[in-house]
Design brief:
The complex is a heterodimer. Chain A is an alpha+beta fold. Chain A is built from 28 helices and 24 strands. Classes of the chains: A alpha+beta, B alpha+beta.
């Protein structure tokens, strides 16, 4: 039975038109026969036909009932609904366009931003049981500066507070012994080495790690093995583990690579292992250059005795079940014991641990959270806008709904018609949203500062897209269906009597007003936020660095210690390079130092003669005489460094104004002396130069000392940065300088070639990204709010046509009508602005710490945002208002 | 106007089957007329609703429908009861009589 039944149904499906034609014919015959019968009984032809039809009933409905029998009714009706919806939407292209664009923008933006946030912040790290991984720092009381900071700027990707430092390797050994909650604590820091013997010499980034590093991270090599404890000891065999990238790109995935040697800093290293492709070295986060190799840390004896040298990063893995709290308590005990044993170096020093993931994303998490909140607001605005659009549309179709009800359509059927329409619009909006979201995500990833960790892992987050889509569609359904439902409950006879234009009741217009006010308010919040970030960014860009950045090209020439064993050899190299480069056409001046501004640095503790205050720790740099000219740092008084300030001559230094201001209470530094430790030599201050913001636009002007690079026994750091000031485009000289370097040493790579302008641009990349994104958000929000205001007022003017016509007929001037509509718009905008300002006042507090020299309650920004919104809102209202003013009373009154 | 009763729900199929079982081949209008005639004009088939019912019964396989010509030469679909339709009629009649008897017993009980 079942099968045959299905067979018959299929037959009907295939011959549906035929079947319904037959049914129609049967019914017509019936009515005809009945008519004839009634005529035979004496009725007139017309009356008979009418009576026969009445007795027969609603033929259309009967046909539907009959075709239901064929078993495909619900499906047919669905298709019919869709066809119907498509047809009715074709008649409203404006509505469709606005709704689809709104959905696409709202969903696309939110998904793109959230995809980034999710990849960077929420997804777990690519290690087994990543929740047990921590990073360990040492903290010092705020006023006490620690001797030397790690000059490589290696901070495991995070930006740490001023009081937080990297760890002393000597202390690490005690933490390992004393804290049982850890499965392992591993030391790791960036190692930069020159790779030679493989074509063009290159400077590679690697990690110098303790033997247990790979066990702690929980990743095994894909080939060979990792380090033994013996290899991780001073004087151990030089061995290296390669990254998958190194192995694939430089060695062509040679499986016989084990026991071969690679030349790093002129020294042969035996390859013992290759890491798998997915392994993310812990210093990789936030760094654009790939980590390509791993060498044993093999801390030398002196380092393991120096409890005050904080220069390694530490990652650790907690034992299963161990908590951060127990681990921290154990570390506190160790710190206390260390402080008792080594009071000079360890008093006040404590070890602190943070979950590794928090540490990695810490630098960007606040900005990302702010952007996420902003994109959440966009979704809300989208919901409100879509709701508003559908509300307007549903109300506008009340008359049509009444007609359909009167013709016998069921309420469910009518609801389905609306549903079909919402669904079609939603589907189109979602599809467009996916396309836009993907494109936007790619743009964002490309535009985002590369220092954002894990940016490469960003991919479309479908869960978020689904949630956002579901929210928007739900809003659309609720607001699209509610009026339809209400319309279906009114008696058709009543609503048919009302003219078409008077569809909306007061409840609905109140809803629309509320939605528009919400929309205006939300977009004002975004505008205020964007305004604050814009102001913050312009403030940053307006900061004076104190030196001239244009036409300066900086680069890194790191001389391997094995080849350039002494500081004098290194100095000789730089002096020779300076001599050669100076001869190049277009070069105006040449600078070299340990580090150029914005490229890291070195600070040292000093004591000043006849100054009792200790713990002075100015930024310090050994520089060549041309440094000041090349960077455009003007001399204030005294003299600059000269060629005469070399080894064997009196030790001299130049300081800046901040040095005099902060360390000498404004006293004259000229002729004063300082030294870098009780046993160190005295430097005489011979000149004062202007302050510079060494760290970049957002950084302070700190006290600074400049030592003579040629007095190589006066400083412990290595010369490594080289720069030229040129007459024209400095970029054009990059190759020529590279050739001069190779002219001196064919194995010496040049890296980090960047103009000062680029360095500055990179240093504010996060702020710029933030500002741009918020700006775009605010723009979109304002656009949506405009659409909202425009939609509501257009509709309201439409509804008031008669009233306006009457007013004009009674003598109201067009200006007065204009005023009337604008008044309504003004009310909406003013209410929205009031709520928006209040909301912004409350919400911007949370981004206050992301702003630079701008109060989160900056009145000018609030006023400007509200002003712009008012202008835009009223501009959106102008169209409908003008239409209202042009109403022809003769036409509208005739319609009445 | 004379008093007419709507056909009790659920009995339309039974009436159609019985009418066709008695009269052989009929088209829709004839079925409607036959029901009215046999009930001495008391039962009024809601004419339109006959057709969805006929469609349903065709679908169930209780009837077959054949197109042919009426006496006046008009094309019409003539319905006939199938063996399955007869079985169905018997089952319906049996349950109908059982219910009718039961109702009658309740009504005549003292």
């Amino acid at each position: 039975m079942g099968m045959r039944d299905l067979g018959r149904r299929l037959k009907y499906l295939l011959h549906r038109d035929e079947a319904s034609g037959e049914l129609d014919e049967e019914m017509r015959l019936h009515i005809e026969l009945r008519t004839r019968q009634l005529q035979d009984r004496g009725l007139g032809e017309r009356e008979a036909r009418y009576a026969a039809r009445r007795e027969f009933g609603n033929r259309a409905m009967l046909e539907i009932a009959a075709s239901d029998v064929w078993g495909w009714g619900p499906w047919e009706r669905l298709a019919q609904d869709a066809r119907y919806a498509a047809r009715s939407l074709r008649k409203a292209p404006g509505f469709v366009a606005v709704a689809v664009v709104t959905l696409a923008v709202g969903l696309g933006m939110n998904t793109a931003v959230f995809s980034i946030v999710s990849a960077v912040m929420l997804r777990s790290l690519p290690y087994p049981e990543p929740g047990r991984l921590i990073s360990l720092w040492e903290e010092t009381p705020r006023r006490q500066d620690v001797g030397t900071l790690n000059s490589s700027g290696n901070n495991l990707g995070g930006v740490h507070a001023r009081t937080r430092t990297t760890v002393a390797a000597a202390n690490l050994m005690d933490y390992r012994k004393g804290a049982a909650a850890f499965e392992g604590l591993a030391g790791v820091e960036t190692a930069r080495m020159n790779l030679t013997g493989n074509g063009v010499p290159e400077r590679l980034i690697g990690e110098s790690v303790t033997a247990n590093y790979f066990t702690v991270m929980g990743v095994a090599p894909q080939l060979g093995r990792t380090f033994t404890e013996e290899e991780d000891r001073e004087g151990g065999d030089p061995v290296v583990v390669l990254s998958a990238r190194f192995w694939e790109r430089r060695l062509g995935s040679d499986t016989a690579v084990l026991d071969k040697t690679v030349m790093l800093d002129e020294k042969p290293y035996r390859v013992i292992g290759v890491m798998p492709r997915g392994f993310e070295p812990v210093t990789q986060y936030g760094n654009t250059e790939p980590v390509e190799f791993f060498v044993p840390a093999a801390y030398p004896k002196e380092q393991l005795a120096a409890h005050g040298d904080h220069d390694i990063g530490v990652v650790g893995r907690l034992k299963p079940g161990a908590t951060l709290r127990t681990a921290q308590a154990q570390l506190d005990a160790v710190s206390a014991a260390l402080a008792a044993r080594y009071p000079v170096t360890n008093r006040g020093i404590t070890a602190v641990i943070v979950p590794l993931r928090d540490d990695i994303v810490q630098s960007v998490s606040d900005s990302l959270r702010a952007l996420l909140a902003a994109s959440g607001l966009i979704v809300l605005i989208t919901c409100v806008n879509v709701a508003n659009l559908l509300l307007v549309r549903a109300v506008a179709r009340r008359h049509e709904t009444s007609v359909r009800l009167a013709l016998g359509a069921g309420r469910g059927r009518i609801a389905r018609a609306f549903l079909g329409e919402s669904m079609l619009v939603s589907a189109a909006g979602c599809a467009a949203g996916i396309v836009l979201g993907r494109a936007l995500m790619q743009v964002l990833v490309a535009a985002a500062p590369q220092t954002i960790p894990r940016l490469a892992t960003v991919s479309m987050d479908w869960r978020v897209f689904s949630v956002a889509a579901a929210m928007t569609i739900a809003a659309g359904l609720v607001f699209g269906l509610a009026p339809a439902w209400q319309a279906s409950r009114t008696r058709p006879s009543e609503s048919l009597k009302a003219t078409e234009r008077r569809g909306g009741g007061t409840a609905q217009s109140r809803w629309r007003g509320a939605l528009t006010v919400t929309e205006v308010a939300l977009s004002l919040v975004l505008m205020v936020g964007a305004g604050l970030f814009l102001k913050s960014f312009t403030t940053i860009m307006g900061m004076d660095l104190g030196f001239r950045t244009e036409h300066v090209l900086a680069m890194n020439v790191n001389l391997p210690v094995l080849r350039y064993k002494t500081a004098d050899l290194r100095l000789a190299f730089y002096q020779e390079l300076e001599r050669r480069v100076r001869a190049l056409p277009g070069v105006q001046s040449v600078a070299y130092a340990n580090r150029l501004p914005l490229r890291g640095g070195w600070s040292t503790g000093i004591e000043i003669e006849n100054v009792s205050e200790s713990n002075l720790s100015p930024d310090s740099q050994p520089v060549n005489p041309g440094y000041f000219e090349a960077l455009g740092i003007p001399l204030v008084r005294g003299r600059l460094l000269t060629e005469e300030d070399r080894k064997g001559q009196p030790y001299v230094a130049v300081v800046n104004l901040a040095f005099a201001r902060q360390y000498l209470k404004g006293g004259d530094p000229l002729g004063r002396r300082f030294r870098r430790g009780p046993q160190a030599v005295w430097f005489s201050i011979v000149g004062i130069v202007n302050d510079i913001r060494r760290g970049g636009k957002t950084k302070d002007m700190r006290p600074q000392i400049y030592l003579a690079a040629a007095q190589t026994d006066g400083y412990p750091v290595r010369l490594a940065d080289f720069a030229v000031r040129t007459a024209g485009n400095p970029r054009l000289l990059a190759n020529a300088i590279q050739r001069q370097v190779w002219g001196i040493d064919k194995d010496q790579p040049v890296t980090g070639v960047e103009t000062m302008e680029e360095l500055i641009s990179e240093s504010v990349a996060v702020q710029r990204f933030q500002m741009l994104l918020l700006g775009v958000f605010a723009g979109v929000a304002v656009l949506l709010a405009m659409i909202g205001v425009f939609g509501v007022l257009s509709y309201s003017v439409n509804q008031r046509m008669n009233e306006l016509g009457v007013r004009i007929a009674l003598g109201a001037s067009p200006g007065r009508i204009l005023g009337l509509v604008m008044q309504q718009a003004g009310g909406l905008v003013a209410a929205g602005a009031a709520f928006g300002l209040a909301g912004a006042w409350g919400l911007t507090r949370f981004v206050g710490h992301l702003l630079f020299h701008v109060e989160s309650h900056d009145p000018a920004t609030y006023a400007a945002a509200a002003g712009i919104l008012a202008v835009v809102g009223l501009a959106a209202a102008m169209g409908p208002a003008l239409r209202g003013a042009r109403v022809d009373p003769a036409v509208t009154l005739r319609e009445e | 106007m004379e008093e007419r009763e709507a056909i009790p729900p659920g009995t339309l199929a039974m009436l159609i089957l019985k009418t066709l079982a008695r009269g052989g081949e009929m088209h829709g209008f004839e079925i409607a007329e036959a029901i009215r005639r046999h009930s001495e004009d008391v039962l009024q088939v809601e004419e339109g609703s006959l057709y969805p019912a006929l469609q349903r019964m065709l679908m169930k396989g209780w009837l077959t429908g054949e197109w042919s010509k009426t006496a006046e030469g008009r094309r019409a679909r003539y319905y006939q009861v199938t063996p399955a339709g007869r079985r169905r009629l018997e089952a319906e009649l049996e349950s109908y009589y059982r219910v009718a008897r039961a109702i009658a017993q309740v009504l005549v009980a003292e």
